[in-house]
Amino acid sequence: MTHLTKLTDTYTLANGVEIPIVGFGTWQTPDGDVAKSSVEAALKAGYRHIDTAAAYGNEESVGAGLKASGLKREDYFLTTKLWNADHGYEAAKKALDTSLQKLGVDYVDLYLIHWPNPAAFRDNWAEANADSWRAMEEALEAGKVRAIGVSNFRPKHLDELLKTAKVTPMVNQIFLNPSDLQPEVVAYNDAHNILSEAYSPLGTGKIFEVEALQKMAERYNRSVAQIVLRWSLQHGFLPLPKSVHEDRIIQNGQLFDFELSHHDMTLIDDLHGVAGLATDPDTTNF
User: Fold this and answer.
1) Which residue positions in the chain have pLDDT lower than 70?
2) Most buried among 88, 139, 158, 169, by the most CB within 10 A?
3) CA 109 to CA 19: how far, in whole Å?
């Protein structure tokens, strides 16, 4: 994977849209100055891919950070997501317009269905996803979004969606890190030309306590975060590291002047369960 040389390198989605190979995550980043300044810091550090969601409650501040950066709209890639309460055709159309307004942009580069089976739609989740997806396909055609995808979908959810979808999801953003490789989901994504985006690529902080990773980081003279993010890239995933500390934001983007050996990749692959597993989307209470 030595062809990956910088943060602005891209993967190409199924419809030809280019997406920068590392995104800057904003989940659990507080609304207000913290979100605004962390987005600004990420863009200053060279990130060109920002990931947010209606559910994060920080779209306005993310938008303010993008604006403050002085970058042109076409110079960064922006993702947001449809929240659980807004599933369905009309609701999804309205939710996208609300997100665009809050972000202060005319379009987003990627729009995702955040969860496949919200508690409120448990009896008719497949139909609700199909209706939401139809609204998203129309938004794609209208130029309000450049690519569409899903998040937290398992193969059964994707199978249902593909029964009515005219456009196959281009991305599936899932909990993906050394603690949970989700092999079945990733294999399904690969088979359908769906990019696997890794949220919580550093686990939930617990990953930093893993002795094997600490030792490896020492050997490579890197941080544990850099080791794990490099591992993600060498798997062909798209990691979305999140931080609100400028020094770590910069460090998490410095992934291109070293490579993990095959032996070390395998060692990391075998860390299943060290920092929690993906949430089952069919049993969530939200």
Assistant:
1) 1-3
2) 169
3) 9
